[in-house]
Amino acid sequence: MLEIGFRLGDRYRLVDRIGAGGMGEVWRAVDEVLGRPVAVKAMLAMVADDPDFARRFQAEATAMARVNHPAVASIHDYGRSHDVTYLVMEFVEGESLDRALARSGRMTPEHTMRVIAQAADGLQAIHDQGIVHRDIKPANLMIRRDGAVLITDFGIARHHDASRLTASGAILGTPTYLSPEQVLGQPATARSDVYSLGLTAYECLAGQKPFEGENPYAVALQRIQSAPRTIGVNLPAPILGVVERALATDPAHRWPTAAALAEAARAATGPAPVAPSRPPAAAAPAGPAAAAPARRARVRMLLAVLAALVVIGGAVGWGISKIGGSADASGPGATATTTPAKEAMVAAGGLLRECGTGFCPLQPLCWGGMTAVNGRAQPPSRVDCAEAHNWETFVALEVPADAVDVRQDSLIGREQIANACSAAVMGSRSKDPDTTRGWERDAWPMTLPGGDVPLLHCIAAPAKGGTTTGGAFVVG
């Protein structure tokens, strides 16, 4: 029985127990040879007494010791003393992510993406050595005092050429954070770690776990039966997309590598593009020499306008094929095409007009904040634009046929819709692009008065749940 003051290997003096799990106990200890604090994980007897365990665990400890990355806790030593098999790791001054969440409830989207990006960097370094961690969770992510993230606890990690470290055929890992394939008893892969890190991101953003049940194993089974419940907070579309892809049930649909997840997490909170400042106007040179640059400038402007119209129409052919075919159906011999979306626009007379292949507001269309029923976000309700409000429509589109039967609160995460409701489109419709730059965007099917067919409204709101008054976007 381990206790304070016990020495392992005549070198590591146990100071206090700082955690315990399904594979063993973690102690803060002192390396009396080098005079430094260390973390010692002592394996439980039921695991360590496996005849092949010592050989396999030592091989994996050796592999993990080769990982040299600032986001991965260093492995110092491995040994067996007094019938105790133990692993000695770097001791981290800080607190675990689960304790930080218990204290704060949840983290901001920007902070969450920074944590996930750092953890994913460390995961990639681990995967590069052929190791799958298999137990990524908030308790195994340490936050240093300077905010840096560190992956710890390799007690059940597995090298690609090693046998599975199981105890009596048990599935290893914390049930709450297992990937669907682990729940099914299939081998864990690098994408299993990506899924577990996605669960961690969800918990950081929502302040709660995506699955709930009567016991951890019931929770584990839910992830092979249903998708995670909707995050009950407003999130920028890029951040929501990062988490949703990480949590794909099919590993083939997740981020292909931890490095790809890290890159996406950083891009999701990257700085918004800044419009270049215009140089002071100069006297235009006279004569033919001035004509070519002027023509080129007009061509560039025309191309930019055309590009904006294409994006407003839905990009990659979606809007053009769904709303009235050609963008110009008024020429000789052309036949006007009527769609349910156009009928809905006409029925809501005075509120929308056709623009390009979409619909632009004729007056500001404003909406309140998001609400949730049973954990699922609901479309916002229309409010008077003169009053403080969260969201405003900057363009509307026909709801794509392949989006009718999917979760309506996650449409902005679909690539075609994200393109149609992009920052570029929002900027082209803004009265003051500098003011709306960085606003959150979302997309919801909503029915206007007089119509019985919903239109897909691209809406925007001040960042971080802010409100505004009046109308921020061009009308008419």
From TrEMBL:
Protein name: non-specific serine/threonine protein kinase
Keywords of the record: ATP-binding, Kinase, Nucleotide-binding, Serine/threonine-protein kinase, Transferase
UniProt xrefs under InterPro entries: Kinase-like_dom_sf (IPR011009), Prot_kinase_dom (IPR000719), Protein_kinase_ATP_BS (IPR017441), Ser/Thr_kinase_AS (IPR008271)
Pfam annotation, one family: Pkinase
Top-tier EC class: transferase
GO molecular function, one term: protein serine/threonine kinase activity
EC code(s) of this entry: 2.7.11.1
